[in-house]
């Protein structure tokens, strides 16, 4: 079986997810926004189904 590694830029994907979904539609009872989490998970699941990797790594960068 061929091994496939999926590398993901987590910061970029989270940023895209945050702005792709309206925050007012994704909030907890206390008002905390969950649109980035939902969008990130949805995109990740879609990538996993499409690419079928054997391994996955998500990297997050930090600003200085």
UniProtKB/TrEMBL annotation:
<dbReference type="InterPro" id="IPR029060">
    <property type="entry name" value="PIN-like_dom_sf"/>
</dbReference>
<dbReference type="GO" id="GO:0003677">
    <property type="term" value="F:DNA binding"/>
</dbReference>
<dbReference type="GO" id="GO:0004518">
    <property type="term" value="F:nuclease activity"/>
</dbReference>
<protein>
    <recommendedName>
        <fullName>5'-3' exonuclease alpha-helical arch N-terminal domain-containing protein</fullName>
    </recommendedName>
</protein>
<dbReference type="Pfam" id="PF02739">
    <property type="entry name" value="5_3_exonuc_N"/>
</dbReference>
<dbReference type="InterPro" id="IPR020046">
    <property type="entry name" value="5-3_exonucl_a-hlix_arch_N"/>
</dbReference>
<dbReference type="GO" id="GO:0016788">
    <property type="term" value="F:hydrolase activity, acting on ester bonds"/>
</dbReference>
<feature type="domain" description="5'-3' exonuclease alpha-helical arch N-terminal">
    <location>
        <begin position="4"/>
        <end position="62"/>
    </location>
</feature>
């Amino acid at each position: 079986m061929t091994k496939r590694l999926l590398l993901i830029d987590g910061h970029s994907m989270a940023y895209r997810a945050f702005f792709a979904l309206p925050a007012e539609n994704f909030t907890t009872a206390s008002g905390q926004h969950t649109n980035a989490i939902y969008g990130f998970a949805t995109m990740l699941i879609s990538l996993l189904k499409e690419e079928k990797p054997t391994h996955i790594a998500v990297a997050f960068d930090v600003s200085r």
